[in-house]
Task: structure prediction
Amino acid sequence: MSTIPTSSSYANNQAAASSSSTAQSSTEGTKQAGSSSTSIAMQVKAESNRAILTASMQVSISAGDNSQQLVFRAAIDKINQQLEPTLGKDALQGAASQDNSPSATATRIVSMSTGLFAAYAAQHKGDDPQTQAKNFIDLVRKGVDQGFKEGRDILKSLNVLQGDIASNIDKTYELVQKGLNDFLTSQGVKVDATSGSSSTSSSSSQQNGTAS
Result:
């Protein structure tokens, strides 16, 4: 015979269920509050960091040609990233110079980068010298492109990528590309002057009339 629950036991069961539900709601509310607080804290931190970066950049840019230092630093950082698998972390140590003209900035980027070619070649002895040079400069170009893009994006976000600042950065980029092309030519790699792309046919082959 089944037992019919009394009103007292029914009430107790209802009270227990209500208490469990309340506890669960409280726990969920605590989790949501904690998650919300964490989210807010992260947003505040992100906004603070952005405000600090913006303020710092505005001070630097107002000082004159420090926009060139920004691009130089960004380029060096990205070139380091490209070369890290072969040459280790921070292969390039980029100290900013007093002369931040397009020519001086481009010269520093090119000379510091190509100065690592011997170390790169030593890690790729199985390749011929022209292939070593081409692959090395391909990595450097990727870093240069990423660095200049990052620098331009920061300056653009501050509404200062215009006038002399914009033209100087464009000029610096052009001079870097020319310097990298000159390096390839010195290593016997044929360079397409219009596109900046390279092939591995040597200058001696060109002189002998061999098709590339």
User: Anything to note?
Assistant: Confidence is low (pLDDT under 50) at residues 1-11, 54-64, 200-212.
